[in-house]
Amino acid sequence: MDLTVDGTLPSALNGAYVRNGPNPQHMPVGGHHWFDGDGMLHTVRIKKGKASYSNAYVQTSRYKQEKNARRPLSLKLGGMVGGLGVIHYIVYKLRERWGLFKTKDGTGPGNTALAFHNKQLLALVETDLPYIVRVNDNSHTETLERQTYGGNLAPRFTAHPKIDPATGTLYGFGYNLSKPELHYFAISSGGMVKEDFKVTLQQPTMQHDFAMTEDYVIFLDFPLVSNPENMKRGLPMLMFDRERSSRIGVLRKDTSSELGIRWFKLPAMYAYHVANAWQERGNNGWIRIRIFLCVYDDSFSIQSTTSSTLARMSEITIELERDECSVRSLADELRCEFPVVPDRLVGRRTRYTYAVAFEKEAGHLGQAAGLVKFDLGSPDKSVAAMLRFGSGRTGEDDGYLVLFMYNERTNSSDFVVYDARTFSNKPVAVVSLPQRVPYGFHGKHINAAQFQSQFPFDIHFLPDI
């Protein structure tokens, strides 16, 4: 069904925009966290100025088993608190032992983000391998299969892999909340696993994102620590330890073991999302790595929905030859999250990054105040422009910002397009959607060429249930 469009959809948006997010299929029991919901994809198909919409669950193993059982079966982050958390864990292990919940094909909800690699659109979560999904011409999104990379990869991925724009190689990692380690991997543009080795940590930590430059990957070992002993004291298993330092690990891409990693210390802090990173070489040949990311200070709590809106755009600078590392805030007065740069500039010097802006009193990540454009090349004025809600080209900021906007008063949603260069409050186009789109996480636009390249794959279809 063609939807009503106010304005004109640019031809550069031909293809599809897909956004992922958590949407529990069953009423949560025993505690709930926003990260726990089943992955639901909301898709807008754009073609020749027209738009259509559909939504569909990612057909994960967890989703299908719980759909058939008509109740939750898997272990959820929101349930891992206090003594009840211990009970939930025991019940979960018994279900696994008795065959009531099968873990062989993964347990993740596929609910966080998307990436396009090797002609495949991947639904991502950090507790499982990706699921290959495909957008049809009528905007319907179907799940094809779980991407196991031929069994050559540890069964954890990252929700935010980095794809090198020069080589097409995908870099990523998977962490383990029960062991002090992560697995670093590199996958070629053709889908072959090139590297996969363990990196030892001091404690099991939740590392949601990482950074990449032309020659390096950088791990962000912030002190969000997993400790089951916490539950015996009535506390969550996953807690921020403000007494522990942050560690930043720098590893050359061409390294084949963890022996080459270098660790740098910073004060306790946390960051969910990296905007971008790049390396610079001075006149003396020394290398400096610059990482831009949304940083929470040591008051961070993963259990608090309010604190999730209090991140500031910041820069971590690493001087490799001097063995120095520092962090600074770009705009103390501004809270922001979900930063983005163009895919073709990931790991390369960028002047601009865009993010969602929040008022200090925002109650959760869905209550955005607007969009913000940061000028990373300006030492005096980092905030280049602010776009407040309600008030195909070649340049770096030539392009469009697209998002789903939900009106809590009318319980209705729109797909909204803004011009990234002019940053005008007036949208380029607004598409009225036939139903509410709930708050979610990360989206991905696939262009017309990528859209067409999805179809040659002969992959077993996983029917919706």
UniProtKB/TrEMBL annotation:
This enzyme's EC code(s): 1.14.99.n4
Keyword check for Transmembrane helix: yes
Cofactor note: Binds 1 Fe(2+) ion per subunit.
Binding site for Fe cation: 160, 208, 273, 442
Catalytic reaction annotation: all-trans-zeaxanthin + 2 O2 = 4,9-dimethyldodeca-2,4,6,8,10-pentaenedial + 2 (3R)-hydroxy-beta-ionone
Stretch forming the signal peptide: none
Keywords, in A-Z order: Iron, Membrane, Metal-binding, Oxidoreductase, Transmembrane, Transmembrane helix
Any one GO MF annotation of this record: metal ion binding
Cofactor(s) demanded: Fe(2+)
Catalytic EC class: oxidoreductase
Family, similarity comment: Belongs to the carotenoid oxygenase family.
GO CC annotation, single: chloroplast stroma
Protein name: carotenoid 9,10-dioxygenase
Record-linked InterPro entries: Carotenoid_Oase
Transmembrane segments: 73-92
GO BP: carotene catabolic process
